[in-house]
Amino acid sequence: MNAYADTGFVVALYKEEATSARAAALMARQTASVRLSQLGELEFRNALHLAVFRGELTAGDAALKKRLFREDVANGIFTIMPVPASGLFARSVELADRHSARLGTRSLDLIHVAAALLLKAEAFLSFDERQRKAAKAERLKVKP
Q: Which of 2, 52, 67, 117 gets the highest tally of CB atoms within 10 A of its CB?
């Protein structure tokens, strides 16, 4: 099953989080490369830099985690896929109009869901409850 992962899911694989074990267990069962948008890559790298800023990681630890992520991309664990901005933002606006008043979704939540839809993902990997609800409303299988 092709899946799209949001940033929080990916970060949990490289930085110890409360959700790390669940993310690792799901990835152990994943047989196809997990799709990420370029936004996901940016957010992942920035999350590591913010962890250094907050004193949660050393610069060396962050550099190692970025290298491990690049290796996972090179080995096909993840595929970073471009999503045309015009289509991405137009779809995100549609999602905002359909879901934000009811679900309280943020713009970045909707951009990730829109990216998953545009990349033809069948499953959406996220721990963010609002984002999960929006993905489910768009008929994506939400995991874990």
A: 117
User: Distance between CA atoms of 63 and 60, rounded to whole angstroms?
Assistant: 5
Taken in order of first residue, the domains within the chain and their CATH numbers are 3-143 (3.40.50.1010)
Q: Which residues contact 70 (CB under 8 A, 6 or more apart)?
A: none
Burial class (CB in 10 A: 0-12, 13-18, 19+), 21: exposed
Q: How far apart are CA 69 and CA 45, in angstroms?
A: 9
Question: For the whole model, what pTM was predicted?
Answer: 0.94
Helix H or strand E encompassing 143: strand 141-143
Could you tell me which residues are beta bridge partners of residue 35?
A: 4, 79
CA 71 from centre of chain: 17
The total number of residues shown for the chain amounts to 144
